[in-house]
Amino acid sequence: MLGDDPVLGDDPTSVGEQAWRTAALSGGAAASQPAGATSAQRSGVTAHQPAGVRPAEPGDVAPVLMLGDRHYDVHARALVMGIVNRTPDSFYDRGATFALDALVRRAEQLVAEGADLIDVGGVKAGPGPEVSEAEELDRVVPAVVSLAERIDVPISVDTWRSSVAAEAFRAGAVLGNDISGFADPEYLAVAAQAGASVVATHIRLAPRVADPDPHYVDVVGEVRNFLVDRATRAQAVGLRPEQIVVDAGLDLGKTAAQSLALLRASRVLATTGYPLLLSASNKTFLGVVLDLPLEGRIEASWAASAVGIIGGCRIVRVHDVAGARMVRDLLAALVEQ
After folding, report:
1. Which of 75, 157, 270, 335, CA to CA, is 20 to 30 A from 60?
2. Are 61 and 275 in contact (CB under 8 A)?
3. What pLDDT is recorded for position 51?
4. Model pTM?
5. Number of structural domains, the chain?
6. Which domain holds residue 84?
């Protein structure tokens, strides 16, 4: 269980600190300055702590997202992305949807519950047995083909391999969700050629590589700068701003405290000019913060989605679509009143 979690950069001119100063001037409490370095600072999360999360204001977040031939106005209403994994070792479902028919049934259920798009993955993010390119193709492409025939929402492919993305785009996927931060040099060109959108995710090392002791000077500022850099690279190959999504990568090379800091700083991360995706569902940092087993993190995942949406996240990637949809719809109703 974590105690009080310090938040943003120890450089008073850091991106995170400037943003929270703006929040303070517009009604939030001023952040206190630390007298000296703390253990939290040394671990990569620094000691400026705002009183709370200020809702994103008009103009803070990118208003339009393009997925294939569909354009979504995401300014006031976030999208809910349902997760389906064709992996035998998924951290969450432990292979429950590895069989193709089980994956299709689960995806159809999530769409019926209100998913705005479906994210299909064939390799888990964490360490595990090697999955070859051929094996990932065999897992992912038939799933995308089957879903494209059966569901009428956009399909995202969760892969960091450009070859897998290319085949998935040909099969009907319209979004490449790459947790490697475009480590594959061909990834962006493949997406641009297919007319697909992309998710740029921050990760400190690489997918499937353990990172038990990550360190940052200013975790919020460094992650934000990384995401802007990757989005700039995407635009350089021809992708439009509305085809680019950014994701802070909670739990990917972050301690629980660092992930919590990034969640709290959603409003900072939502001001890059690109829609911000939140992937917090059932993740380890929720279990650490609240001392919860995997099967007990549903309510914490709802709360994380609420904090993220209030802070400007435009897509929430979740296992429990029905719960996230209720959170999203209530917050949208509050904004629309």
Report:
1. 157
2. yes
3. 38
4. 0.82
5. 1
6. 62-336
